[in-house]
Amino acid sequence: MSVALDSVLELHPQVAVRPEPFGALAYHYGNRRLIFLKHPDVVRVVQQLAEHTDLAATLDACGIVPERFDAFVTALDSLQKSEIVRERVIAG
Fold it and tell me: Can you say whether residue 48 is alpha, beta or left, with left for phi > 0 and alpha for psi between -120 and 50 degrees?
């Protein structure tokens, strides 16, 4: 799956995020990958994904201006390939 603004994502449950001055470190305990989240805005979005209906709603809630949405879609697509975030299963 490729990430889009209507993607419903969450932080992978096996990932720990540790805040750092540059952003954060994200460590996946399952695949043992360590990823640098190099901007505080990315950290905030990743941490709030599960609280909103989709990526666009998360970006809005985090105060990200629409001109930056494409950059976040690209970043989250990369994070999904690294298994830091995953598609959220909506019970229903």
Answer: alpha
Residue in the block written with tokens 């979005």: 45
Task: Name the fold adopted by 9-83.
Answer: Outer Surface Protein A; domain 3 (3.90.930)
Q: Does position 1 have pLDDT exceeding 80, yes or no?
A: no
> What is the DSSP secondary structure assignment for residue 68, as one 8-state letter?
G
In the chain, what are the domain boundaries?
9-83
Q: 3-class DSSP state for residue 67?
A: helix
15 contact partners, CB below 8 Å, separation of at least 6: 26, 27, 28, 29, 83, 84, 85
Q: Which residues contact 71 (CB under 8 A, 6 or more apart)?
A: none
Task: State pTM to two decimals.
Answer: 0.91
Q: Is the pLDDT of residue 91 over 80?
A: no
